[in-house]
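input
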Amino acid sequence: MAELILMPKLGFDMAEGTLIEWVKKVGDSVAENEVIAIIETDKASVEVPSFRSGVLRALLVEEGTVVPVGQPIAVIGTADEEIDLTSLEVGKAIPKEKREIVATEETAVLAPTPEPSPSVEVGRRAVSPVARRMAEELGIDLSQVRGSGPGGRIIKRDIEEHLKQLERAPKPAPPPPIPIPSAAPAEEGYQVEPLSPMRQTIGRRMTESKQQAPHFYITIEVDMKAAMALREQLNALLPEEEKISVNDLIIKAAAIALRQFPRLNASFAGNEIHLHDQVNIGIAVAREAGLVTTVIRDCDKKSLAQIAREARELIGRAREGRMRAEDMVGGTFTISNLGMFGVEEFAAIINPPQAAILAVGAVRRVPIVNEQDQLVVGTRMKATISADHRVTDGAEAARFLQAFKAALEQPMRLVL
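output
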């Protein structure tokens, strides 16, 4: 039986994505979880897998099309069945308030937008997703654009035509230059770098987090001598491609502590706090274009070797910009590790709607005073938790850090 494949939602704040490549074409057989397309979000390029096996019978959007979340992008079925788009309710698959063209401007018949009554039209213009996106990016007032699509709908070519008209319009004379006092220093040269979509998203979300979530911060120092010794012993038994990193130890220790303190493994949701059943830890991965977070699920139930293997695969895909849909969503807690850059300690910004984030510094050899009041060399690491005061309090966050510290200082807990 034929079914629709919809634009997936990859993150709570994702509203649309750009279909940049069809990996499969019409008539190709696909297996369940086989990649059929690649979409681009504000954060990364993501592989879209098929949710079932079958034959790809129709592609409803062209490459390069911006598609809102939840709208159909393809039809999958069997090789010989007749496909009736009307019976598949392509138009009804879209929420009423977002029901717009899901294919190109020329194939609107695939998902017709019902003509609104005159009363609905007042103060509202029908605009295709592509045209709206162009207008927002170019700063165009849509009330000044004439629509040529069905029912006066504004489509991509209308925005392009409006731009041509603006270019042909006579340019006003530039205002006279403002005199600069001779005492003022000459302006230094600089280069302009436009914000990428990823940097815009990072800026928007981090601003919202700092403005809306009342952060507080607690730092603890961990004795890493035993944990580093255990890592050395385990890696001596493992091939190069399966070796365990310090970050893998940190992830497992955090997962153990989160099981004991579930309010740190939570999300703030208006008048509710959601305590998550799964411990899904997000790892902040630095790319040249910006920071992305990739998620390892059920960290409390997985062995160190499993965490190491998954972390290596996820980080590799993130750095290559080929993340899968499931790589980006579902995180309940985040770890940001800057130890590899020699950073001793720092405080991170909470990744909303999560309740907390753990910032980890480098494992360092430092002078310490032991129990015999002797000055010796110790192995230490500092970790700082940033927590949302709407969800948790200082004492609870401090106890979480104590449990995290205990798991690393008695590292056999990590392998039990």
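quick obs: The radius of gyration is 27 Å.
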